[in-house]
Amino acid sequence: MRVTEPASVRWTLIAIAVLFLGLFLVLPLATVLLEAFRNGAGAYLAALREPEALAAVRLTLLAAGIAVPLNVVFGIAAAWAIAKFEFPGKQALMTLIDLPFSVSPVVAGLIYVLLFGRQGWLGPWLAAHDVTVIFAVPGIVLATLFVTVPFVARELIPVMQAQGTEEEEAARVLGAGGWQTFWRVTIPNIKWGLLYGVILCNARAMGEFGAVSVVSGHIRGRTTTIPLHVEILYNEYHTAAAFAVASLLALLALVTLIIKTFVEWKVQHEH
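^ that's the sequence the OP posted. Answer follows.
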């Protein structure tokens, strides 16, 4: 039996949803773009061409370029193990994958400082071997890696669990090796879930602020990512430049949303 609500109720709910989205999503995004171009396109491009802005973009791409592939490898391996096998500690592994969702990014950054800082547990050993982690690129990569761990694995686990093991077992019976089964059976079946996880992982990696802020030291031109560079510019009252650089993250959000919508559309049409 299909339950229908009066037209007035439906339109009221729709209006509330549209108003909410307009106030808390569309309006802030429009504000960022308007403020970014407040002084004209020339000032906008000049803010993006500054050496410190370019260094922040390069560091952000580097951190994401390292964290995302590592999370893809880990996510596939973890999802495969959890979905296909039973083993001691399986529930503990799932809990650890979700750990970055429950721990504040700032706390995660502090943990890395306690581990790898000069006064931390491993600090003296690292200093003796002339290895710098905190207030350097390795610390930023580690912080980014931590906060993005769950995204690929969490997208793939339900996909692999729903598919079961029948197709892989059939491929092995027909003589396919382990890698052949993986590339020709498993990967095609999880490609859209994998792409969806990579999209979310990359968006979080490039937009991460809390953990990276703690371990970076805010060394301009060296350890500032795009979000940190935006904060520095805004704190120094370079508002237009701050919004100009922030527009890069807004553009990333829009691109992520478009790709996410496309992936969802493809998944729905394939099933």
